Amino acid sequence: RGRAKPRKPRKPPSTFIAKAPNQVWTWDITYLPSSVKGLYYYLYLVEDIYSSKGVAWEVHESESGEYAATLMQRAMLREQCFSRPPVLHSDNGAPMKSQTLRAKLHDLGIQPSHSRPRVSNDNPYSESLFRTVKYNPDWPSKGFASLDEARHWVEGFMQWYNHEHLHSGIKYVTPADRHDGKDVAILSARDKVQRLARERNPLRWTGKTRNWAPIGSVALNPQKENLANDIAA
Known about the structure:
With 233 residues, the chain is of the alpha/beta class.
């Protein structure tokens, strides 16, 4: 018998830094229970990690690389970022690694990134957003009666999430405001109000005031254990 070849050191995962919207996206699929036991619908959702905005979503009756490819095409059309395509991170599910999706990403110029095998928390942005979906007070506890009902509910949720939800991970502005670059002015105005209030009533402000500076760049690096910090929705 020949000598066993020494194992090659595992290449560390790439780090991607989002300094602006549409530089790094993450996506995943989660199940939506129907009112029929054992029957599920599937929510496909693409999120921008810089702004936490959902940039594209669809609900289907199955998991499919074809559906995923169509969703990515629509996401690019909606965001109009063909000249500088984003990195797209996902786990290693069958739709994520399908030839149909790979071909579409190649055509669009999107660089794919995948979680490490057998590492459960390598896609924390999508996981966090899915928790926000399913812990919403309006979540139908008895399941969705139909595909149309599931699609209608998700559409309403995403409009609320993107345009009304004050996201704790981005200093309590909406994902849409952060995505559109409005967060700087909003946070500056809050800081000004806070400083004026402290000047008028200094005795009421004994501790540190809240830091309203924008959060800046956002990193995607599955190698770091603390990646999930500060991204709770």
